[in-house]
Design goal:
It is built from 3 helices and 9 strands; from the N terminus they run H-E-E-E-E-E-E-E-H-E-H-E. The chain has 196 residues and is of the alpha+beta class. The structure holds zinc ion (ZN).
Length: 196
């Protein structure tokens, strides 16, 4: 197991389309193990193989909702809710950048596990957001392509303060509302492991 370098904004590989995985062998398992180590070190919630320079349809997602790490190989979104949530997200390949992105509230992903078995994965809220964000990476898309509004570090802090003041226990049924209650909030940053 090893920590791999995370590709950053501007690297052309982030715009390339990843290819399917056909061999569920040691090489894939090493990639998955290394991606987990890399994600843990970066304190992120999700990582796509392309972000460590490997153009394969592989993503891992580890949001803190008690369901643990999910390894998704050759994933496809097969269902998504009409209901959407707009929240601030970031990306390990775009350090210090934040943006409000509208995502489906719920998605169902069909993917293979590390043994090659097809499984269904349901995601709600942050996990749904994470699935969408990571699967976008496999198509060469990044969150800034869809962003409704970018936030600087200061603006994000202000938004969090405003939201907290407005209502801590907000249910966020209004999809126009931009969610951000914790810094750095959502994607690829686990709020529990960050300094604020
Ligand atoms: Zn990302």
């Amino acid at each position: 197991m090893a920590i791999r370098n995370i590709v950053k904004e501007g690297d052309p590989i982030l715009r390339k389309t990843s290819r399917p995985v056909f061999k569920f062998d040691e090489k894939l398992w090493t990639l998955l193990d290394d991606m987990k180590d890399t994600l843990d070190k970066a304190q992120g919630a999700g990582l796509a193989a392309v972000q460590v320079g490997v153009l394969r349809n592989v993503v891992i997602v580890d949001v803190d909702d008690g369901k643990g790490l999910m390894e998704l190989i050759n994933p496809k979104i097969i269902e998504k809710s009409k209901e959407t949530i707009t929240a601030v997200e970031g990306c390990l390949s775009f350090p210090g950048k934040w943006g409000a992105v509208k995502r489906p509230a719920t998605v169902v992903v069909r993917a293979q596990n590390r043994e090659g078995k097809w499984c269904l994965y349901k995601g709600e809220g942050l996990r749904a957001r994470c699935f969408c964000h990571e699967l976008d990476h496999l198509k060469g898309h990044v969150f800034t392509d869809y962003v409704l509004k970018m936030y600087s570090e200061e603006e994000l802090n202000q938004l969090i303060e405003d939201n907290k003041r407005r209502e801590l226990s907000i249910q966020s049924e209004n999809s126009d509302q931009v969610e951000a209650f914790e810094k750095p909030n959502v994607l690829e940053n686990n709020p529990e492991n960050t300094e604020n």
